[in-house]
Amino acid sequence: MGAVTATLLDGKATRDEIFEDLKTRVSALAARGVVPGLGTVLVGDDPASAAYVRGKHSDCAKVGITSIARQLPGDIGQAELDATIDELNTNPECTGYIVQLPLPKQLDENSALERIDPSKDADGLHPVNLGRLVLGTPAPLPCTPRGILHLLRRYDVPIAGANVVVVGRGITVGRSIGLLFTRRSENATVTLCHTGTRDLAAEVRRADIVVAAAGVPGLITPEMVKPGAAVVDVGVSRTEDGLRGDVAPGVDEVAGWLSPNPGGVGPLTRAFLLTNVVERAERIAADLASTPS
Ligand SMILES: Nc1nc2c(c(=O)[nH]1)N[C@@H](CN(C=O)c1ccc(C(=O)N[C@@H](CCC(=O)O)C(=O)O)cc1)CN2
């Protein structure tokens, strides 16, 4: 084994910094009579999804956000899911909410995401909000991409002018992160790779920043990484050996920075979910203050 060269990007420490800031902002909101509330819709009993949702509510308790949990059986039809979404759309205690993904196969994920009131879309995955991201107008940003950018900035990874290679075209990361990296404020150049990419190794090798979000254990090997590059491991798979990321062992001996998995981007996904909820509550408080009584 060679020596580790990479600086590890510590997602938990960075999350704790964000939580400290959120606690202060939630207290300031309370003084103005506004209490942020996060809703979650969990369908079925997938243990991983249930654990992620529990984690979101335990984060809420840490920063003073109200939790509104909706749990539905795994065999429901679209109409029952729609009814729960409609209820949260009109629930005044719910400032923002998410539908936990993936949904059971009989349900239409895109239709569920579209039904969410865009102003309550805490995941930033509603088509209106993704469209606003394309237009460059303010919108809640998707949580994992926002977390990745925050983590890279926090550790001074150069982004402007960087060649970024994203591996994976899923809705929560791959498809939206290019929109963030190519904003004028970031100015990176992005290549989005997927299962149809002809020579993945060649694409990854020329990247200054690699975002691995394919959900294929050990996909990114040390030989594929340019020495000194930043590698962000987002994908997660449950294997017989436990949780495995998309990045193979040994990459930390080639990379300049490594966001590990676990302990990298995951905690920030949760932190930016709460940030989106608090930001919505701050907009509500500002609207109340500017409305004549
Ligand atoms: N509606 C959504 N569904 C899903 C999202 C999402 O952002 N919105 N992302 C993932 C799951 N997810 C949040 O929902 C999530 C996954 C992982 C983590 C995390 O903190 N992981 C830890 C490790 C946890 C473990 O040991 O199991 C880490 O990386 O350190 C947070 C959130 C799919 N669905």
From TrEMBL:
Domain Tetrahydrofolate dehydrogenase/cyclohydrolase catalytic positions: 9-123
Keywords from the named record: Amino-acid biosynthesis, Histidine biosynthesis, Hydrolase, Methionine biosynthesis, Multifunctional enzyme, NADP, One-carbon metabolism, Oxidoreductase, Purine biosynthesis
The gene coding this protein: folD
One MF term in the entry's GO annotations: methylenetetrahydrofolate dehydrogenase (NADP+) activity
Positions contributing to NADP(+) binding: G168, R169, G170, V236
Superkingdom in the source lineage: Bacteria
Catalyzed reaction equations: (6R)-5,10-methenyltetrahydrofolate + H2O = (6R)-10-formyltetrahydrofolate + H(+); (6R)-5,10-methylene-5,6,7,8-tetrahydrofolate + NADP(+) = (6R)-5,10-methenyltetrahydrofolate + NADPH
Gene Ontology terms: biological process: L-histidine biosynthetic process; methionine biosynthetic process; purine nucleotide biosynthetic process; tetrahydrofolate interconversion
InterPro entries reported for this sequence: Aminoacid_DH-like_N_sf, NAD(P)-bd_dom_sf, THF_DH/CycHdrlase, THF_DH/CycHdrlase_cat_dom, THF_DH/CycHdrlase_NAD-bd_dom
Domain Tetrahydrofolate dehydrogenase/cyclohydrolase NAD(P)-binding: 142-283
Keyword Amino-acid biosynthesis in record: yes
Any GO CC annotation of this UniProt entry: cytosol
Quaternary structure and interacting proteins, as annotated: Homodimer.
Protein name: Bifunctional protein FolD
Pathways per UniProt: One-carbon metabolism; tetrahydrofolate interconversion
EC number: 1.5.1.5, 3.5.4.9
Record's function text: Catalyzes the oxidation of 5,10-methylenetetrahydrofolate to 5,10-methenyltetrahydrofolate and then the hydrolysis of 5,10-methenyltetrahydrofolate to 10-formyltetrahydrofolate.
One Pfam family cited in the UniProt record for this chain: THF_DHG_CYH_C
CDD domains in alphabetical order: NAD_bind_m-THF_DH_Cyclohyd
Entry keyword NAD: no
Family: Belongs to the tetrahydrofolate dehydrogenase/cyclohydrolase family.
Organism: Rhodococcus triatomae
